[in-house]
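Researcher: I'm preparing a figure for a lab meeting and need a structural model of a single chain. I don't have an experimental structure, so a prediction will have to do for now. The sequence is pasted below. Please return the structure as tokens so I can convert it later.
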Amino acid sequence: MNWRLREAVRELHAGGIIAYPTETVYGLGCDPFNGVAVLHLLSLKQRSMAQGVILIASELGQIEPLLQPLQAATRKRISVKRQSPVTWILPCRPETPAWLRGDHASLAIRLTSHPLASELCHVWGRPLVSTSANIHGRPPATSAIRVRKAFNTQLNCILSGAQGNNTPSQLRDGLTGKLLGRGTGTQ
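Model: Understood. Here is the structure written out token by token.
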């Protein structure tokens, strides 16, 4: 594990906000179980908590405790590796914090296939809030330099690396597989 990854995990443990490349654009992340950190991230983005956030993970087991029990077919559908990123909308447990689900009874999740984001989740051992690195409604950052310009010194750590194809992820109903739309990339 490189020192930058160790630094990012240290910052997550301390309640910090980090930036990292994903399959689509650069993301901002924090510990999803730290409400103060999530609300700070939303404040930086000027985004309402009512919308909820996406959680990424390197494996389904990291997110499953937040979800209603999943049928075997749903687990299989979500776990299949895909060419393009898919964000799944799934019913969450009633005790899932409002700062994650917003005004919804569901949670948006993605099993990340981005090598660095996946390794980060694996080393962290938990899911990670993942929202596009931008002020809400503005174009998302597609490089570490653009993240730095957008957020200056407000972030605790920026992991550099190649991000994916800048195409928003598909949004799909996790129970049925039905396509609901595409992410905007400006969340």
